[in-house]
Amino acid sequence: MLDTLNLKLSLDKATYKSEIDRLMHQLRELQNACWGKKLPVIVVLEGWAASGKGGLVKQIISYMDPRGFQVHPIWPPTAEERKYPFLWRFWQKLPAQGHMSFFYHSWYTHVLEERLFKRLETDQVPTVQQLFGQINSFERQMVDYGTAIAKFWLHLSRKELKSRLKDYAKDELTAWRVRKEDWKQAKHYHRYASFAEEMLVQTSTGVAPWTLVEAESERWAQVKVLTHLASTLTTALDQLKIKLSPPSLPAQTQLEITESNLLAQVDLSLSLSEKDYEEQLAKAQVKLRKLQLNIHKYDIPVLAIFEGWDAAGKGGAIKRLTRILDPRSYFVHPFTAPTDEEKVHHYLWRFWRRLPTKGTIGIFDRSWYGRVLVERVEGFASETEWRRAYREINEFEAQLTSAGYVLVKFWLHISPEEQLHRFTERQNNLFKQYKLTDEDWRNRQNWNYYDVAINQAIQRTTTPSAPWTIVAANDKYYARVKVIKTVVETIEAQLKSRN
Amino acid sequence: MLDTLNLKLSLDKATYKSEIDRLMHQLRELQNACWGKKLPVIVVLEGWAASGKGGLVKQIISYMDPRGFQVHPIWPPTAEERKYPFLWRFWQKLPAQGHMSFFYHSWYTHVLEERLFKRLETDQVPTVQQLFGQINSFERQMVDYGTAIAKFWLHLSRKELKSRLKDYAKDELTAWRVRKEDWKQAKHYHRYASFAEEMLVQTSTGVAPWTLVEAESERWAQVKVLTHLASTLTTALDQLKIKLSPPSLPAQTQLEITESNLLAQVDLSLSLSEKDYEEQLAKAQVKLRKLQLNIHKYDIPVLAIFEGWDAAGKGGAIKRLTRILDPRSYFVHPFTAPTDEEKVHHYLWRFWRRLPTKGTIGIFDRSWYGRVLVERVEGFASETEWRRAYREINEFEAQLTSAGYVLVKFWLHISPEEQLHRFTERQNNLFKQYKLTDEDWRNRQNWNYYDVAINQAIQRTTTPSAPWTIVAANDKYYARVKVIKTVVETIEAQLKSRN
């Protein structure tokens, strides 16, 4: 594929000059339009060393308002960054609405340079094929969110690559930029090219296609890149007009019958005596404490997420789960309404930012399921958005588990009667009053709508590697023991599968 | 000092039980009060290895609402963290209003463990004495912001330390927690104790005193720590009532005469012909490009901040400054109104978060001077707050320069007539209209009040290591060349001082 590119293509100076002036003005206007329409833009520049990526970034941004873009040079991951799924560090750098992010190298280096230099093992999990899949999901999620993505591969022949590297090395101003990895690209040109071809084929999707750029003539390359970038932005802005659907209706107007009612099948009479509770709890806590040593030893990240009805006892269960743990080894993060910084990013962004690192236990009090629960019921997410979210969530969770995360998902279930009982109790207890808000009463009125949303969410996001545990929580003793036992069992199973 | 502590102090079980119950309920109520009053709380736990810090954190948080606190275990800094001033990583972890942060080890390890294990060199800059000063400023800034700080030193005799380490090492559940550094503490007990004493003396300030805790009896230690923590919180909450001053008046009501009018002394007729401009600009840009190699080579962080009247040409100057630079080596960060996450933190927090790392150039379009300019004039900061800010800013900048930062501060000065001319031009230019907002017109009406604020700010924050450069900017050519030449000269001076 790459060897059929006509690398002789070039432009005379006069044509170049007039083209580039026109394009730069056009891009400047497009930047303003993106800003006005809150369209996030991702530009990916990949290609051979010395193929002119830096010059291109400089060219593009020289005409732009510096308040609207960020340049992200991507180096090999730091020790810190290696402790997360490989896409983690790119999620941190995603553009907010209206902003443009230029990735000078990108997530693609992971399946290219890392592969060439054998920093990836062949039998590793996730495999290179899985990584391509994760990249495709990632880009599709961004495009669905409304992001415009333009990806460029700047191509050089082996001869040109070598000659440029030699020129660079001679010049004091550029010599420092030539890394030993760049020389290796030249040495293993054909192997690298075959990896690149595979990558281009596997990730040139309908939503985010690659543009191959004949980069031996700098003028040709610049005009081609700018032309494609301008057309990507124009298309994305046009799409926006079509996508602007009417404000979505709250779920109250769309009550549907679910396939099967999982919640109704829960035996809410399950309970434990105080004596059994204390015995079993203590036993499970000690087990967990011991498992923590292995989590630490084998660098395993654990993430437990807690969903449930208001007053179902999430807080109490979390407290018992963590009571005996070393406070340096876990953290609890409660998620409430998103901040304004979070509001201008993809809804998964804030969860990516808070992931536990290897060897620690992260506990999320509420989670990304808000997208298909409260956001659906209250109409904050459109029907298209929350329906799409099931797949996005499954993809996200698969990325976590394939990166070695132990993922435990709880729904704490109580009956509406038990909830009312607890609300009343809270109201009358000065010490607990702060826990009860007007929102809790409103949510309670929407019980039936939540019931549908929860059943559907659990059904659509139950996967072999990330199953749900529905906990009968009318009896707090039973629920707390069930939670901690489930965490223990899941970690034990993961440890066993390592051996 | 430490050897006079009576380590025999202890409590019988019954007294302990009743005391601890009472204290935990009190703390729980205090946490609610802090949450309600938006009071941020910092708890620092330092002391010998195995002195019970972990048990204490567990004890305290077991009674608390997990949505209101974070535990920050502090390990030796990562390679990433070492690229910033040493307080950088603690700024990232400061509690938002209403939250409590428990530091399990803290900034004090830097002047204690790092010192014992010779990770700090004796002739380094900043010196240990300077570090104590930086810590004291840091804590005073937090207290002035309204933060309650409680600091505990848990003390053990050498004999007890050794015996505990041996016990820990024997038990499977605790063995992993004993680091080789802990054994070294026991080995070099007296040296470590003398460092600790020096630290305790130097940093036990009126606003944030240390509490020394006799930690050989766990019961005694827990009751003492909780009692002091409760009293610190109670005092802070009481203080809050006193501090709640009436809403501050905008500066319009408080026009004062400054000592000398620096801005009036600027020769605004300075200008350059187009030919001179292009020659000098190109020459300076090439120089900067070369200096960039040294910045990279010697790992020097550079921070250039741009302040100036609306339409003074900050954007244009930044563009010319960066045009020839490698886009991987610098970033521009524009600061506008704070986000809601930023609003619940100290005003310097958002600038700490964006500092350039070693070897890169950070360019801030507006900066922390907003505190003494727009926040003063508009009345967003009280008079106490903005007056206090001069000192805080000087301290902050001194921390940067003593950590090796090259700091360049610009005020771009234009006349009111020139501003009006540029506003009108913007209004009539479809391409530039977005740059002009209603706020610009309002700021213009406040010209005289800003004039006073700017003069005062420049006078009070001009220091030998962080001087201001006031740039005559009626002529854009002159201003742009002046800016880039100043950056070049400042970096050159810093490089020279290295040799």
Provide structural commentary.
Two copies of one chain form a homodimer. The first copy, chain A, is 50% helix and 12% strand. Chain A has 20 helices and ten strands. The first copy, chain A, has helices at residues 13-37, 53-62, 88-91, 113-116, 128-145, 158-170, 172-175, 180-187, 189-203, 218-243, 274-297, 314-322, 340-343, 349-353, 374-377, 383-402, 416-428, 438-445, 447-460, 476-498, and strands spanning 41-47, 69-73, 100-104, 148-155, 210-214, 302-308, 330-334, 361-365, 406-413, 468-472. A five-stranded parallel β-sheet of chain A has the order 2-3-1-4-5, with helices on both faces. Chain A has a five-stranded parallel β-sheet with strand order 7-8-6-9-10, with helices on both faces. In chain A, helix 1 runs parallel beside helix 10. Chain A is elongated and about 85 Å long. The model of chain A has no long low-confidence stretch (mean pLDDT 90). Chains A and B meet through helix 1, helix 2, strand 2, helix 11 and helix 12 of A and helix 1, helix 2, strand 2, helix 11 and helix 12 of B. Chains A, B: It comes from Umezakia ovalisporum FSS-62. Chains A, B: This is Polyphosphate:AMP phosphotransferase. Chains A, B: Pfam families: PPK2 (PF03976). Chains A, B: Residues 11-236, 272-497 form the Polyphosphate kinase-2-related domain.
H/E element order of chain A: HEHEHEHHEHHHHEHHEHEHHEHHEHHHEH
Name the helicity range of chain A: 40-55%
Shape of chain A: elongated
- Identify the biggest protein-protein contact and residues per side: A-B, 48 and 47 residues
How many β-strand stretches of chain A? 10
The secondary-structure class of chain A comes to alpha/beta
Query: From the alpha-carbon coordinates, what is the Rg of chain A to the nearest angstrom?
Result: 26 Å
Strand order of the largest sheet of chain A: 2-3-1-4-5
Stretches of chain A where pLDDT is under 50 for at least 5 consecutive residues are none
Terminal residue distance of chain A = 43 Å
Give the assembly state of these chains. homodimer
**What does the average pLDDT of chain A come to?**
90
